[in-house]
Write a structure and sequence with these properties.
Layout lengths: L1 E5 L8 H11 L3 E5 L12 H14 L2 E10 L6 H18 L3 E5 L8 H22 L2 E5 L7 H11 L4 E6 L1 H5 L4 H8 L3 E6 L2 E3 L2 E4 L9 H10 L5 E4 L16 H15 L1
Parallel strand pairs: 1-2, 1-10, 2-3, 3-4, 4-5, 5-6, 6-7, 7-10
Antiparallel strand pairs: 8-9
Amino acid sequence: MKLAFSTLGVPGLPLPHVLRLAAEHGYHGVELRAHAEEPVHPGLDDVRRAEIAAEFEAAGVEVLGVAGYARVAEPGDDDPVVAEIRSLLELARDLGAPFVRVFPGGTDVQAPEEADAVAARRLGTAAEHAADLGVRLLLETHDSHRTGAAAMRVLGLVGHRNVGALWDVMHPWLGGEQPSETYAALAPYLGYVQVKDIASPSDTTPLPLGAGVLPLADCVEVLSRHGWDGWLCWEYERRWYPEAAPLHDLLTAGRDHLARLLNDSA
């Protein structure tokens, strides 16, 4: 498996510094948070996109994915959501990223089957554009669809090879799902895995990998047992928890912890 980290852990950091962190601490790739307050977002022009792609190539670091904020199940018109997804797909294509992350984003006013249908319709509408661009859309286990079983309900309705799943290890666990159950649900769709650690279900402040309660060893073990060889991406949510320790102080230890888990599961 290859290792990456998300720029959610280094909010606003200029890309040259991000690339230096990846290279110096032994990470193969970076997941780019696509937001207007970050150096990378859909508003960039073609020249800047080409420059960013060249910077990554020169550094020998891969763009794992573009982490967007489209909410595919939220109530409302389809057109703005589909347009947002398309803009993220085009950004990913221009940067050479294989994946785009989207959120479910359903609400309490929807019945689950209604949220499933809305999300599947929008993902299905965007799927052919994703295929044309050579990018996969990944629905993250998050918010209204936090478990693998919930995400699978949507993905089964879509039934397109360019629409898959992103397994955020925290949310299925908080939803009462064991790693073996999450993997079984997502295996046909799995794009990559976001790892992290937290103190408790009631305190999701990010911690160094291995310092909290999330079953990271079980997640890596089930992936290894099934021969999965994709990406593990550390999503350290410092943007939402500025009091958390700086990520750059933790990257080497985090890489070493993941390497130990991979070795132990081999």
